[in-house]
Amino acid sequence: MGTLYLVRHGQASFGAADYDQLSELGHRQSVRLGEYFAGRGVHFDGLIAGTLRRHKQTLEGILQGMNRAGEHLAWEGLNEYDSEALIATVHPDKLEKPTSPELYRHHFRLLRDAMAQWMAGATSPRGMPTYAQFVAGVSGALDHVRANHYGQNVLVVTSGGPISTAVGHVLRTPPETTIELNLRIRNTAITEFAFTPKRHMLLTFNGIPHLDAAQYRDWVTFT
Hints:
39% of the residues are buried. The protein has helices at 24-39, 53-66, 83-88, 101-119, 131-148, 160-171, 175-182, and strands at residues 2-8, 46-49, 73-74, 153-158, 190-195, 200-207. It has two domains: 2-80 and 129-219, Phosphoglycerate mutase-like (Rossmann fold), CATH 3.40.50.1240; 82-127, no CATH class. The model has no long low-confidence stretch (mean pLDDT 94). The protein contains seven helices and six strands. The protein has a six-stranded mixed sheet. It comes from Ramlibacter pallidus.
């Protein structure tokens, strides 16, 4: 049996002109996670990441914290959905930059509604795959791990959408549950699956043991 570690990227730049860039805290979160893995003697036989900048930066930080280097497999099917394209299907006007708790809540209410409609096939966000194609990209990565890494530890760095989709796919949850899982995933959180050549089995979800100590309390973020 093998173990798959799905890690969400570190804090990105929510509200900035370029979201796809780790913040300074996001980099520290990533390095800290690598230190945690190294301290526990965890070794990875396979490294896989989405192709977004924040995925690659997070993986680099983890490897820095582990004091190791390694080549990874880039997997486009592990890229996040386009939240702006989704929201545009239910709110065509330009959104204000979220600068208050109410604006943040408004943003995520729109995102939840837009995701539900996309999953149901009721909308076609510009430049995005269908939801069935999105799920296929994630499940294809799971299939690759089972086929090529039995008995090994594999690290996958991706985003909240693919992680919640992977959990939903394995547990066969309804789309509504997948949405709720997605919106709860913390930056650099770990979701673990045990796997055999035939299936994946969920072990843990959304854990941040590397940030449990009091000095890291302010490092826990969701964006």
